[in-house]
Every structure is written in C-alpha cells, then in structure tokens.
Amino acid sequence: MRSVEANIDWRTNFFRCDGPGYETQRRLLSWSPVHSDTHSFHSPRLFGVIRFVKKRQLTGAAADLLYSAYLLVSAALKASASDTT
Fold it and tell me: 83 and 42: one domain?
C-alpha cells in the first residue's frame, strides 16, 4: 500500500443505516446524497470527492473534522488491505 500524496482525488461516500428493524424502517444516511428510487448506495457516479492536500496546522472544529475523516479513511484502507491478503 502506497501512501496518499497531496492533490490526489478519491471518489467515495460514507453510509450509515441507523435504528432498529428492517431496512425499510431504518434511517439511511449518506455523506453525498443518493438520489434514486432504490436508495442504492452502490452508485459511484453519485459519490462525492475527497481531495488530499498537504498537511497544515488547523485548530478547532476544522481540525476535529479533518482528523475524523483521516480515521475513517485509515480504517477503510486497513480493511481493504486485509481483504487482499
């Protein structure tokens, strides 16, 4: 696995199925809106874009948000790497 370089764009989406019960009773949430009758989250053309940039000093809410995104991407990369071994 190579490291992520500055000015690289990834198309992605983040999803969550929230609440008890069957899928029709749960809240379906996504970072980038999914506009379809089937609410399929498997539509890359609807994904948002994340651009990785050079590290800079951030503080407050911006730093917290960026760190949360870093943790999500790191976890996804680790899961992806373990799937290929």
Answer: no
